[in-house]
Amino acid sequence: MVTNFVQEQLHHFQEKNRNTGRLIIKCPDQPGIVAAVSSFLKQFDANIVELSQYSMNPNGGTFFTRIEFECIHLKDKAPQMEQAFMEIADEFAMEWKFNYVSDLKRTAIFVSQEPHCLLELLWEWQSGELMTDIALVISNHEDAREIVESMQIPFYHIPANKEIRKEAEEKQLRLLKEYQIDVIVLARYMQILTPSFVAAHPNKIINIHHSFLPAFIGARPYERAYDRGVKLIGATSHYVTNDLDEGPIIEQDIGRVDHRDSADDMKKAGRAIERTVLARAVKWHLEDRVLVHQNKTVVF
Asked: pLDDT at position 197, please?
């Protein structure tokens, strides 16, 4: 019943947005960019419904924009639009992409033993707040199997540690290719990914770290926060790079603690922060609201 309900919601979302597109642009800033893009969309009878823009430095810096638009018969027009847009893209030296909202991104979730972030994502997905096709869940433990399979989502147990990391990642990469995955979510997946794995999915692996980065990078951040006597704890969702917990930050949040809180108390409070921070970051990624520039993000 859960699966049928979710499928109905996703189908309704796709039908509702079958003529909705998003144009994502990053380029050197100069006059005339918005005017040129707006005029281009008008030529195809497209109506802009949301436009966000940011210039990192108006005097020769980088310009970012996310444009959401409605266009009748969008899928029929899409090839011609993309071909025609190349002229503008060349003129302004753009990095650009058209995304079509009815093409749901396919998501893989990686998890270890702590289920709170996984459960939040599944709840958001089940309730229609997270518009994606959760194609599979991969874990190095069996703990989450019953939860995942109760929603009729494929679950794969692939043991992983530093001794067998290469073999484990080969299996994972085969599954990601087989399921045509667009985004990978590390929902408290407590394994370090190899550079080759990260390179295969640039800016498509979203992690949750259980501290307010750059504080307490790496393992056991709550214990280290307790030893330091902090008054605030937090969580950070970021894209994964080869530098541990130093990838572009998407979202962060904090909660207050005091001298009466033990390390376990901090962990309990932190779990609530972790799951909401990760869910927001994933949602913004799915909605094409996150643009990466060097080791920072612009979040519209």
From this structure: 97
Are 260 and 216 within 8 A, CB to CB? no
Q: Could you tell me the CA-to-CA distances from 81 to 73, 74, 90, 186, 233 in Å, in that order?
A: 12, 9, 15, 35, 47
Angle subtended at Cα 190 by Cα 232 and Cα 223, rounded to the nearest 5 degrees: 35
Encoded tokens for 169: 């990642």
What letter does residue 144 receive in the DSSP assignment? T
Tens-digit pLDDT profile for residues 192-248: 999 999 999 999 999 999 998 888 898 899 999 999 999 999 999 999 999 988 999
Q: Are 149 and 72 in contact (CB under 8 A)?
A: no
Same fold, 18-100 and 106-299: no
More confident residue, 56 or 236: 236
Return the exposure string of 217-244: e unless at least 16 CB atoms fall within 10 Å of the residue's CB, then b.
eeeebbebbbeeebeebbbbbbbbbeee
Cis status, amide bond into 214, omega within 30 of 0: yes
| DSSP summary character for residue 248 | P
Report, as residue numbers or ranges, the catalytic residues. Answer: 245
| Span 144-179, pLDDT tens digits | 999 999 999 999 999 999 899 999 999 999 999 999
pLDDT the model gives residue 94:
98
pTM: 0.95
**54 three-state secondary structure:** strand
Domain 106-299: which CATH class? Answer: alpha beta
Structural domain boundaries in the chain: 18-100, 106-299
Backbone angles phi, psi at 133, to 5 degrees: -100, 100
* CATH class of the domain at 18-100: alpha beta
Give the residue-averaged pLDDT of 14-31.
Answer: 97
Q: Check whether 1 has a pLDDT greater than 50.
A: no
